[in-house]
C-alpha cells in the first residue's frame, strides 16, 4: 500500500475502511486501571477485552494508565505516546489477516528511579485495579521452595527505602500505604502472568515485602486488598520488521503493532475489593476453579512450548510452527504431552486434556504466527522450574513415565551450552545465562554438574529415577545429536 496513515486519534477516520477502529470517545474515558508492563501480550489480551466492552458502550471509567519500572521500556513508551497510546492488533488466522485498532489505554506514566509518578497514580482512589505482566520470573520467588525471596537485593532495597522503591511491588506497597492513611481503601492487585496461582503469588510478594518494613501495613494489605488468580492465554509474537510490515500492508503507520493468533482465553477469580469491569461480557470467564484451568494451560501449553523451543534452538529451527513441522520434534512433543503430562491434568468444563493437546497442537502449527523459538525459549530458568519440573515431580511421585521430561531437561542443558548443532552461536537468552552456560559446558562430561544447580532442581539431583535418564539423554544428545535422541524417545 503506497500511502500510510499515521496512527493517531486525529487520523482514525482516515484509516482504511477494513480496519476496525474505536467507536467510543476516547477523550471522555477516565482511568480505573494501572497496568505495569505494557508488552505485546497485555495489549493483545487484557486491553483487547476492555476495548470490546468500550465498543459496546461499557466500562468507560476503566481506562488503562500504562506504567513500567524498567528504563529499557522508555523507547516503547515514547512510541506509544507518539500515537496517543493506540495499538493496531493484527490477527493472524491461517485463512487471512485482519486488523483492528484498540484504544483503552489513555496514558503512560514517566519511568522514574523512585517510581514517584507511579506511586501517585496508584494512590489515586479512581484506580481500582493495578494489573501486571512482568514475566514469570519477576515475582521474587525462590525457585526451589516457592516462597518469597527476601534476600534479593531489590527486596532489601525496597524494604529499606519504602518511599523510593525500585520495583513494582515496592511501588504498590507505597501507594497502598498512602491509601490506607487517607482512608480511601485498597486496590485489587491482578497478575496476568503465566504462574499457577498467580494471584496468590502476587499477594505473597506484596505482603511479604511489606512485612519486612511495616508489619502493620502488611496485615492491612493482607486483610483488605484482593489478589485474584487468573489464567491468560493467547499466542502473541514479538514485534519485528515483519510485524511492522504487516501493519503497513494494512495502510497503517504504527510504530508498535501487535500480531496475535485467532484464539484468546481469560479465566478470572471473581475477587475484586474495589469493583471490576464486566469482562465476561467480552468473552472472559469468571470462575472459582481458576487453578484447574491454569494447571491445564501451564502444564500443557506453556510446558509444551519449552519442549519445542529448546529442541528447535539446538537444531536451528526458527519458529514454533516450524518445530511442529519437524517430525522428530513434533513426535517428541506429542508423546510427552499425552503420556507424561496429560495424566497430571484435570479436565475443565468443555475440555479434556486429550482434546486440549489437540487444540494446542493446531495453534502451535499455525504458520501465520511467526513465533520464534528464541522468544519462547527465553528465561528457561523460570519456565522450566515453573512449567516442567512440577509435572516431573508429580510423575516421580505417582510412578508415571518421566523419560521425555528428563530428555526435555537434557535439551535445555544442551541449549544453554550456547551453540547449535550447526555451529552457530545461541546468544544469551536467560537472566542467569552466564551461570547456566558454565554448568552446561561442565555437564557435557559430567551431567551431574547441571543438576547441581539446586536453585532450580533441589533434591531432584539426588533422585535416580530422574538423574539417571537425564544423564543418559544428555550423553546421547551430545554424542549422536538431538534428532537421534528425540527419535529414540519417540520409538520407545
TrEMBL record:
UniProt cross-references to PANTHER family, sorted A to Z: MANNITOL DEHYDROGENASE 2-RELATED, MANNITOL DEHYDROGENASE DSF1-RELATED
Stretch forming the signal peptide: none
Mannitol dehydrogenase C-terminal domain segment(s): 290-470
Superkingdom assignment: Bacteria
EC class name: oxidoreductase
Xref: SUPFAM superfamilies: 6-phosphogluconate dehydrogenase C-terminal domain-like, NAD(P)-binding Rossmann-fold domains
InterPro entries: 6-PGluconate_DH-like_C_sf (IPR008927), 6PGD_dom2 (IPR013328), Mannitol_DH (IPR000669), Mannitol_DH/Oxidoreductase (IPR050988), Mannitol_DH_C (IPR013118), Mannitol_DH_N (IPR013131), NAD(P)-bd_dom_sf (IPR036291)
Annotated protein name in UniProt: Mannitol 2-dehydrogenase
Species per Swiss-Prot/TrEMBL record: Pseudosulfitobacter pseudonitzschiae
Entry EC number(s): 1.1.1.67
Keyword annotations of the record: Oxidoreductase
GO function terms (MF aspect): mannitol 2-dehydrogenase activity
Gene3D superfamilies assigned to the protein according to its UniProt record, in alphabetical order: N-(1-d-carboxylethyl)-l-norvaline Dehydrogenase, domain 2, NAD(P)-binding Rossmann-like Domain
Segments forming domain Mannitol dehydrogenase N-terminal: 32-280
Pfam entry (one): Mannitol_dh_C
Amino acid at each position: 500500500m503506497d500511502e500510510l496513515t499515521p496512527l493517531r486519534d486525529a487520523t482514525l477516520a482516515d484509516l482504511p475502511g477494513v480496519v476496525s477502529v474505536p467507536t467510543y470517545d476516547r477523550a471522555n474515558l477516565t482511568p480505573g486501571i494501572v497496568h505495569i508492563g505494557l508488552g505485546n501480550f497485555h495489549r493483545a489480551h487484557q486491553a483487547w477485552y476492555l476495548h470490546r466492552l468500550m465498543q459496546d458502550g461499557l466500562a468507560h471509567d476503566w481506562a488503562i494508565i500504562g506504567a513500567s519500572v524498567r528504563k529499557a521500556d522508555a523507547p516503547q513508551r515514547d512510541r506509544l505516546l507518539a500515537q496517543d497510546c493506540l495499538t493496531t492488533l493484527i490477527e493472524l488466522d491461517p485463512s487471512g489477516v485482519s486488523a483492528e485498532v484498540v484504544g483503552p489505554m489513555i496514558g503512560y506514566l514517566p519511568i522514574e528511579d523512585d517510581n514517584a509518578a507511579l506511586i501517585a497514580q496508584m494512590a489515586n482512589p479512581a484506580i481500582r485495579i493495578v494489573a501486571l505482566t512482568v514475566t514469570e520470573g519477576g515475582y521474587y520467588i525462590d525457585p526451589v521452595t516457592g516462597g518469597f525471596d527476601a534476600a534479593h537485593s531489590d527486596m532489601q532495597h525496597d524494604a529499606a527505602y519504602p518511599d523510593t522503591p525500585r520495583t513494582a511491588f515496592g511501588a504498590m506497597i507505597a501507594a497502598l500505604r498512602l491509601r490506607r492513611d487517607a482512608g480511601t481503601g485498597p486496590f485489587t492487585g491482578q497478575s496476568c502472568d503465566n504462574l499457577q496461582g498467580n494471584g496468590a503469588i502476587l499477594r505473597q510478594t506484596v505482603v511479604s515485602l511489606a512485612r519486612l518494613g511495616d508489619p502493620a501495613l502488611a496485615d492491612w494489605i493482607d486483610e483488605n486488598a484482593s489478589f485474584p488468580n487468573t489464567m491468560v492465554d493467547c499466542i502473541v509474537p514479538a514485534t519485528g520488521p515483519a510485524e511492522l510490515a504487516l501493519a503497513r500492508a494494512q495502510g497503517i503507520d504504527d510504530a508498535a503493532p501487535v500480531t496475535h493468533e485467532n484464539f484468546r482465553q481469560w479465566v478470572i477469580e471473581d475477587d475484586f475489593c474495589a469493583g471490576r469491569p464486566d469482562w465476561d461480557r467480552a468473552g472472559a470467564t469468571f470462575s472459582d476453579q481458576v487453578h484447574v484451568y491454569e494447571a491445564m494451560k501451564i502444564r500443557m501449553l506453556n510446558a509444551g512450548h519449552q519442549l519445542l523451543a529448546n529442541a528447535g534452538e539446538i537444531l536451528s529451527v526458527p519458529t514454533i510452527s516450524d518445530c511442529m513441522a519437524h517430525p522428530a520434534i513434533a513426535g517428541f512433543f506429542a508423546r510427552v504431552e499425552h503420556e507424561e503430562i496429560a495424566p497430571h491434568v484435570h479436565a475443565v468444563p468443555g475440555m479434556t486434556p486429550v482434546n486440549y493437546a489437540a487444540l494446542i497442537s493446531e495453534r502451535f502449527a499455525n504458520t501465520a504466527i511467526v513465533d520464534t523459538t528464541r522468544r519462547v525459549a527465553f528465561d528457561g530458568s523460570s519456565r522450566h522450574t515453573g512449567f516442567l519440573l512440577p509435572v516431573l515431580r508429580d510423575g516421580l511421585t505417582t510412578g508415571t513415565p518421566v523419560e521425555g521430561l528428563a530428555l526435555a531437561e537434557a535439551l535445555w542443558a544442551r541449549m544453554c551450552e550456547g551453540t547449535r548443532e550447526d555451529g552457530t552461536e545461541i546468544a544469551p537468552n536467560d537472566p542467569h545465562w552466564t551461570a547456566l552456560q558454565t554448568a552446561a559446558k561442565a555437564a557435557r562430561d559430567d551431567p551431574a554438574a547441571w543438576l547441581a544447580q539446586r536453585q532450580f532442581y533441589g533434591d531432584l539431583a539426588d533422585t535416580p529415577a530422574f538423574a539417571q535418564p537425564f544423564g543418559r539423554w544428555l550423553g546421547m544428545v551430545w554424542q549422536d545429536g538431538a534428532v537421534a535422541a528425540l527419535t529414540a524417545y519417540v520409538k520407545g
